[in-house]
Amino acid sequence: MITADRMAAVDANAAALGIPRKQLMESSGNAVARVVRESVDPGDRVVLVCGRGNNGGDAFVAARFLDAYDTETVLLGHPERIGTEIARENWDAIQHAELPTTVVGDTTDIADLDLDDVDLIVDAMLGTGVTGALREPEATAARVINESEATVVAVDVPSGVDADTGTSEGVAVDADHVVTFHDTKPGLADLDAAVTVAEIGIPAAAERFVGPGDLPSQHRAAASHKGDHGEVLVIGGGPYTGAPALTGQAALRAGCDLVHIACPESVARDVQGYSENLIVHALDGERFTPSVVEGVLDRAVEMDGVICGPGLGDHAETREAVSNFLGGFEGRAVIDADALGVVPEVDTDATLVCTPHQGELQAMGGETADDWEQRADLVAEFAGELGHTLLVKGPYDIVADGETTRVNRTGTPAMTVGGTGDVLAGVVGALLVATEPLTAAAAGAYLTGRAGEAAADARGNGLVATDLLDRLSEGFDNE
Ligand SMILES: NC(=O)C1=CN([C@@H]2O[C@H](COP(=O)(O)OP(=O)(O)OC[C@H]3O[C@@H](n4cnc5c(N)ncnc54)[C@H](OP(=O)(O)O)[C@@H]3O)[C@@H](O)[C@H]2O)[C@@H](O)CC1
Ligand SMILES: Nc1ncnc2c1ncn2[C@@H]1O[C@H](COP(=O)(O)OP(=O)(O)O)[C@@H](O)[C@H]1O
Ligand SMILES: [K+]
Hints:
The chain is an alpha/beta fold. The protein has 15 helices and 16 strands. Helix 10 links the parallel strand 11 and strand 12 (332-335). Ligand NPW binds at residues 7, 11, 24-25, 28, 51-55, 57-58, 83-84, 126-135, 138, 155-157, 181-182, 200.
């Protein structure tokens, strides 16, 4: 079962693996033709009613595999308005091959569409790209299709039906058979139609490994204003000063508008000294202690997200302070480094993403394995028990929430240098502001690894964590 959004992401991941969309379209069209051939006899009349998107593109391909039949490929709308290059190329191919086609909307009107003596209609007007009720001429075409005696084979989804919900806002094609691709869609379950799930050559890797399709959109409304894109609080520092500053700057580089650092006054000036981009709030004392938790909670509740842990140190007072903080916090937080040990013991209403390396995972009570597939199963199980999302760092990062597991392969051994985990925590914290935990963790691991690769290209094993900061925003240019 796969949703339309997830299908689009998997599509993009397949392309990044070297399986271009046009190849997927070829496989889809071939699969449709195979089902059509099982439903008609040679010489039967087959009409393919096509839209201007890739759903139509699938049928332009299918037409090439149905040359033995009396086919007619009908395009609703002018070829100039075909919306994608791969659909356009497949339309041009059947034109050059002189397969019979009709264009509706210019000279021919949809009402002239004669489907009376047709044996089989391929419904390729709309698939997962439908928005709202069918407009014209698709709506009339759907009615003409439904009134005909022909067998109706729908491409991917019956036109007008929402692939995720199975409902339609207006008229929808009533199909006898649906040929859907790669995996079934939630909206097909209750349809009164036979459903064929066709493999179209998308490898499991496109779903399992994090890819460009898993990155949240970087689109921003022109009318955005300060703070719209995230205000986060880093709770860190104590013995260490670099870690919270790395985390805070990484959160900015991952798109946050405002980053606050709550750190002990003993290191506040040092942390502020790293960057004017950070807003530093000094906490009484030399480490994070229960006495300042109340004030930190008051600030945290104003934020879109929190990153707790970088450089906190593991003093007993600090562990108690983290425990008290999580006991009172109900928002979204990344928990990293020395704060991780507290998570299994504390009862919190917060939505957490924990980012342990394998040693920290074991200290939390989790199990690990050298083989990443075994590790993935162990981490998924532990995430389920914890009730939080885990990002277990390593050569392959394992991201799991107990329901879904993704594996991130980006990164380089040059990233074992200190501070890269602090950068990762900042990236995940920034994404967690506006993205679901699993997606934020998967995308954070992917982007941090990509930045590490870019840094290693330039500096080899001499890369340092700050090299990643400049390269983070480069990774966001997903297509
Ligand atoms: N891995 C995969 O997923 C693969 C997917 N593949 C195939 O791609 C399909 C998705 O393609 P897609 O994204 O181009 O969208 P699609 O369904 O053709 O519709 C877009 C068109 O519909 C139109 N339109 C929209 N709403 C409308 C309305 N209410 N009433 C009327 N028109 C409306 C819209 O017009 P516009 O709004 O742009 O003017 C645009 O022209 C998918 O279902 C599968 O078949 C395969 O090739 C292989 C692998
Ligand atoms: N051997 C490796 N190969 C690829 N990426 C790695 C490797 N070791 C660590 N990384 C990456 O470096 C980042 C920080 O991981 P790690 O060094 O374990 O964290 P920390 O800095 O907290 O110890 C993660 O994004 C991880 O994927
Ligand atoms: K369709």
